[in-house]
Amino acid sequence: MRGHRDLKWVCVAAVAAALVACLVPWDVVRLLAALPLAVFLPGYAITVAAFGSKRLDPQRLAMLILLCGLSLLCLGGIVLNFLPGGLRTVTWALLLVLVVLAAARAAALRRLKPPARPSGWTRPRLRGADIACVVLAAVLLVGTLVFAYTPLPAGKAVGYSALWMLPSKDAADPALEVGVISAEHGRQHYRLEARIGENGKPKRYHLMLDPGEEQVIEVPLDAPAGKKSHVVVSLYDSDRPHQLYRRVTTWTAQPGEG
Amino acid sequence: MSSRDSRPSGRRQGLLAAGPSPLALIVLGAAVGLVLCAYTNALSREGGDPTQLVYWIGVLLIVVPIAARISMEDVSLRERFALVALFGLSLYAVKVIRDPFLFTFPDEPIHAYNANQAMIHHGLFNGNPILPVTSGYPGLASATSALMSLSGLSSFTAGVILIGLARLLLVLALFVLFTRVSGSHRLAGLAVVIYAGSSNFLYWGVQYSYESLSLPLLVAVLAAFAEREAAVPRLVRSWTVPIVLGTMAVVVTHHLTSYALVIVLVLLAVIYRLVRSPKPNPWPFAVFTAVLAGGWMLIAANNTVDYLDPVFSGAVTSIWNTVFGQSEARGLFESASTDLVYTTPFVARLITLGAVGFLFLGFLAGFRQVWARREKKPFVWLFCLGAAGFFATLALRFAPEAWETGNRAAMYLFIGLAFVVAYAALRLIRKGPRLLLRRAALLSAIGVVVIGGAIAGWPWDSQLAQPTRITADGAEIESEPITLARWIGEQLPGRKFAAADADARMILATGGARAKTGEALSIKTILEESSLINWELPSLRGNGLGYLVADRRKVSTDPGRGSFFYVPGSPKHALRPPATMHKFGEVPLARTYDSGNIVVFDLRNRP
Fold this sequence. Notes:
The structure holds two protein chains of two kinds.
Chain A: H1 5-23, H2 27-51, H3 58-81, H4 89-110, H5 128-148, E1 152-153, E2 160-167, E3 175-183, E4 188-196, E5 203-209, E6 214-220, E7 230-237, E8 246-251
Chain B: H1 10-17, H2 22-45, H3 52-70, H4 77-98, H5 108-121, H6 139-151, H7 155-182, H8 185-195, H9 210-230, H10 233-253, H11 255-274, H12 283-299, H13 304-323, E1 334-337, E2 340-343, H14 346-372, H15 378-396, H16 403-428, H17 435-457, E3 469-472, E4 475-478, H18 480-491, E5 496-498, H19 501-511, E6 514-516, H20 523-528, H21 536-542, E7 547-551, H22 579-585, E8 590-594, E9 598-602
Parallel strand pairs in B: 5-6, 5-7
Antiparallel strand pairs in B: 1-2, 3-4, 7-9, 8-9
Helix pairs in contact in B: 2-3, 2-4, 3-4, 3-8, 3-17, 4-7, 4-8, 5-6, 5-19, 6-7, 7-8, 7-9, 8-16, 9-10, 9-11, 10-11, 10-12, 11-12, 11-15, 14-15, 14-16, 14-17, 15-16, 18-19
């Protein structure tokens, strides 16, 4: 690939991007490496391999880079699916680097001589006013995205609480895990009553949850061994303490299974 | 490129140099347009009912300046190219800022599930409980999993980036295709802008779905094919590489798009023969694509026929019944969901009808232009056929079960229509008296066409964002179906659920569990009826389902509206009778989860 600066850069960039994607733990940095590695570098390499010494104009080059890059992603997974290892970070990185290297090698062989200019794209001349407009637009765009991605209060949306009950996985003795999730608009006080068996004495718990908070309590099962018990857990909120708010039930001798 | 390209005169260039260039101003205008769209969506996400006028002004701030500039004569090819890219990405951003937190369009959670499964199992073809056919076309899941693997992103973020790239490819490929066929990059730019009037351009066509990726690939293959036809002999083989690669990608990504590609290539082969084109007939490409698409269907996606057969036979039956008065015609601008019907305001209807009217006038005038030129280019014939076909599909909108087929077909046919109408648009703004007035008329018509298309393609009440994630006392809380899905993901991963459409989709995408819905195993009936029939619950158990999600919200069966916070007062937030929920307690079944409107019953846990 001597003399073909664009191909050399593409190969170096692909290897570097693959290393970053595989080794760096930060997602943002990995994304900056993943996008070129996944789409642009293979797309460019395949395009120049196909066209050899023919210089494409920017619009056709851009279209072909995207077409070849995206097509490779659609097909690459199917190839990896039938290879040992399957679809993983390492196998994807390896496949894409191999494609880039092979296509760049093919392009170098097809080109009769190194191109006089690395690309047909000449840098546009930007004026101060243009730069100011584009910077302002970029600031607006970033602000818009941040604004769009920021959750807002919605007073009309009805808040709610969720109550759930499942067999405890961690407790040494048989027990049930009972959880309360608050998606109410403000801090909420609850009373929780757990009754084990038809004639069991209810166990009472008092909870206080902020919006978005979840609390899990462990309710021990002190029913006679081997006997099937009906467990009823009821939730009341402090605003209407005598009106049932939520209820979950289970029969303890027959755990649920999906 | 044989395109006509003139440069501004020196004096004019000097005057322009004093201030920012038109392109820079247009970029700024597009950013301001997005701010308006984000602002209106934010008001809507707060649970309010903001006027959509501000939102549409935002969209127009993106569309009209670009259309105005792109239709000018003295604009360089490079600037037009940049404008086209800006146009595609800006309108895509409108959809992204509408759904910033998670996928809410009906097909999106289904495909997100496929991508997540590819990551979990390190392989494709993992099956899909709601739309099994999607598993046999893993192109989208493959591409998404590549981005997810290499970047560590979620399927949502990777999907948003991927569809953004696909949208960029679509507009660039349309531009290259139209430029090659017309020989004018001015006409090509206008045609791309007019294509945004397709009813699925703003929303449906950019949802995270396999067709959103395959359609751009199809257009790019056609553009490469058109370039190949015009290439010097030594470059013919070079263009074959992207054509073959793109065709293979289309075939493994989406069934209907691959069949559309076969139809287009067959039509081209026929047209080549009819016009006695001196170029080699493209029938080998048609055969190649047909063999690939057929082979893929037989080997990897053999449930495709089961999926498509009811869609098309239902459409044909519906057309027949509507034509012969055996069933009522579908009301236009009505979006039916369960027993609720959502209507579109009068002004919005008027805009949409105006858009169709403008397009029809444009088609007639454009077709006249093409006819007068005695065009013999096969692609021009193909586009004229497509344009005529578009108006035929409008009739399908009157048949209840055929309107969606017509709506989806329009995405393909509109490519031809945009090209033909662009001829008329150029004719309208030819040099002569009252040019300013004619330009204003054209830009107004383009504005109406783009907004009318968006209104025709997506229900009026769903144009703006709805609350999915909000803040309360400074903390973030999510809607009932999303909280349920996250709870399932944490507590019951890998379990199998029966649920209403909207809930099942959230369980798939957010919870990562398997959920069946709709008519499968009579789940819809079981959830909606006030009493149970003896065989119903045993049937669910017998098919391996462990839990049943009962949801009193009527919108829970509407995958486009059922994932949001409950906002009382709106007709779409009506509840089913309490008996629909109580019937499960009478069986009795254990209640595992209760959030008020949604209760999860354990099908195996009984006395």
